[in-house]
Amino acid sequence: MALFSQPTARALAILDLLMANPDQAFGLTEMTRRLNLNKATCHAILTTMANYGFLVQHPKTKAYRLGPSIIAAGNAAFAQFPVLEYARPELEALQADLDIGFGVTGRSKQHMVLLALYGQASELINSFQLGLRLPNDAPVASSFIAFSPAKHLEAWLTRAHESRGGYNERLDQKLRVSVIGIRARGYEVTLKTKAEAELTRELSRIHNSWSLTELEDAARKYQIDLCDEQYHLDRIDPKTKYDVSTISVPVFVENKLPVVCFVAGSFKEPMTGAKIEEIAARIKESADRVTALAESFS
Fold this sequence. Notes:
The chain is built from twelve helices and ten strands. A hairpin with a 6-residue loop joins strand 1 (55-57) and strand 2 (64-66). The chain has two domains: 6-74, Arc Repressor Mutant, subunit A (Orthogonal Bundle); 81-297, 2-Layer Sandwich (Beta-Lactamase), CATH 3.30.450. The radius of gyration is 20 Å and the shape is globular. It is of the alpha+beta class. Helices cover 54% and strands 16% of the residues. It has a six-stranded antiparallel beta sheet. Strands 1-2 form a two-stranded antiparallel sheet. A two-stranded antiparallel sheet has the order 7-10. It has helices at residues 6-20, 28-35, 39-51, 68-80, 83-98, 123-127, 142-145, 150-163, 169-185, 194-209, 212-226, 273-297, and strands at 55-57, 64-66, 101-107, 111-118, 133-135, 188-191, 241-242, 244-252, 258-265, 271-272. Helix 1 (6-20) packs across helix 3 and helix 10 runs antiparallel to helix 11 (212-226).
């Protein structure tokens, strides 16, 4: 069983809250209410983080915001993850040319993380604030898994079955077909679903009250519910129209593995398969240029 540190989790919950609300500051009472923390414990954590510069406290209101040490940490992380800087001009040009929004997602062991937004991405991506996470379990993060080693695929599938209470052969086959299609095409296409609409509503509600527990529960329910819907577009007929949610294209850097994905969204009307292929080809050209640039500096 993986080790878990409750004090660390509490400090990270505070950072999560502040990252998701960059235009707001929170006092001790409001923060303890939103994060369901003991006031004395929360005060000790806030004081320590402020002493080290990760938070700053307003001298009059006593409310807390992110501090300068977070900027330094972000710059250090950015230096180790330069692909985002390489991606910026490509995504800004795509957003302007195609008049659609883009997100950039990354992946950790347990989560898919929203790293950046350009323009008005899909309602789901736009509601899911920067830095927040979805479970890295099937069918989420398929565009990463499709180009990862087989052991990662099997672990991804296993976690999905476990989240639903046990192995389901039909689901397993459906997910494997989707992954094969994504790898063959070089990109992922997802369709609008009831699960997405429900998560979008939940994120709007949770954002106003901010409960990390509710956020994690909503993200997990989304992942589980997607398994019961037609989430991936596995075969594309050029003449048929599809209600597309996202088109995702991976960027490869380290050991030819996907390090981030460009995610196009905000498709207001159904589009033909031919249009999907046209947009995906444009995104893939940009992703390939970023891959080449990143590899030249690695």
